[in-house]
């Protein structure tokens, strides 16, 4: 079976996974790194859960093109390319779990459920274990990943095409009947786009995930759409003498492989569900940079956060969240390490390590609790195509930030601040649609300046001068890109009103993701930066920082679209005018007697602040200035306040007979 290719321009990246039907909840990777052949081989175990659907039977009948096999069987579609898949098998987890009294009994099941096997019950209960039991849960998941294949006479069938791996089982027609635990045996290809095999600055072999436009689909088969949030754990065997760095919540200590002394084994895990694209791996002869001068007491001392609300109400999935841990609020500098090859150790020691501590402390002062418990920084080989890349628990830095002279500290420090900012904006809060990359890059660029100024301990005047200089340089860069690049690559939201939309199966495309020009452009960084700089200029830096903190508190652990940020900023910004201030404005300037333009601005403030005492002014404006009132109708409706919506309908009823027909149609569409 082969899926039909999407009829999209060649520079669009297809996301084929049918995430509206079934989701991967946890990955267990077991990988071997082979430098001689430049491949990574092993297996990945997927723990799956069908997506709940509505309907009288509780079962989705899924007839979407490309989601069934030629015989009509339900098909799991994973994003995959440049991989050689040798085997897919359903795991017999009952053989390893049924004898263990480790999972709670399920007292009842919905009558709408299809008949569930004991195996399905076990995996469902395992996936739903509380985050307070995460360590035990991971032990059980690891145990299950080593289970033998099911011996029921049936087998999993699979096929690959350019962008996906399709898996089905004869006779299984619905996702609710699909196996819940699969093991896929595979190996990467030397030219696969997700990892880069190269040599470091000491001419020693290494491999790392390079932040490719195709993300990790050439490292392991996965669900790439951002909505497919999952946890993972990984065991990596690499030649002894190599260091394996990875996204993981604890520092890994190598153990000797039981089969051969030539390989060491490294184990990592995460408990926070995140998109598979954030998985990061680096294997090489890295050395840890040692610290000559201990951190000052000022950096490690705790700030009094007695006024901080430690009992945050989280809206994300179940995981051990640092935002709810009182101890995390006072941890200005999280544990951190720096790695590089031998020849760069001294520069990394003198520049990166001391700056990293100060930048972490400054970021904490600006944004509050660090989302992740630790951080590694790796100086990657010279072929790295960016100045930096942030992933959970690990940052890649280019050697270009390390150079002689005092100016090197500015480049290095500001870049560190940019990547640290991504812990909040880009990782713990991500974009639901990858085309909205400005959400993370614009915010990180804006915060880079604020955090770096704090780390340098600049005066107010020095901070303002540094902000202006950087803004000027960025404006020149943006102007140059706008003049010398295709307009279609300059749009912040290329999907326009369709941003965030997917097909019935959950598949979609990332517009222009494969265009080679796009990877070298900064228009999304810079347009986003100037938009935020404009907003900051209207409310002031301190209030703008308060907006950042409120945003993190509200949306951490979630995926969002840009409309959410705009709405929250508007709501935050409007708090700057109290009812007393509005009353004083109205009385002092006699706004109801000013010209129509001034009255229009006054009515905007009334609507946005829900200042009910002046609703009469809005009604008078809509009746007597119909040519300028269309926008206000929209504002009254979009606030979603019943009183304001009733006001809009009442005003329309009073004037609709005399309104211009075109204006009336527009207003009726908004109001009715």
UniProtKB/TrEMBL annotation:
GO molecular function: metalloaminopeptidase activity; zinc ion binding
Ranges where the Peptidase M1 leukotriene A4 hydrolase/aminopeptidase C-terminal domain occurs: 537-671
InterPro entries found in the cross-reference section: Aminopeptidase_N-like_N_sf, AOPep, ARM-type_fold, Peptidase_M1_C, Peptidase_M1_dom, Peptidase_M4/M1_CTD_sf
Signal peptide from the UniProt entry: none
Entry-linked SMART domains: Leuk-A4-hydro_C
An example Gene Ontology CC term for this record: nucleolus
PANTHER family tied to this protein: AMINOPEPTIDASE O
Protein name as annotated: Peptidase M1 leukotriene A4 hydrolase/aminopeptidase C-terminal domain-containing protein
Organism listed in the record: Gouania willdenowi (Blunt-snouted clingfish)
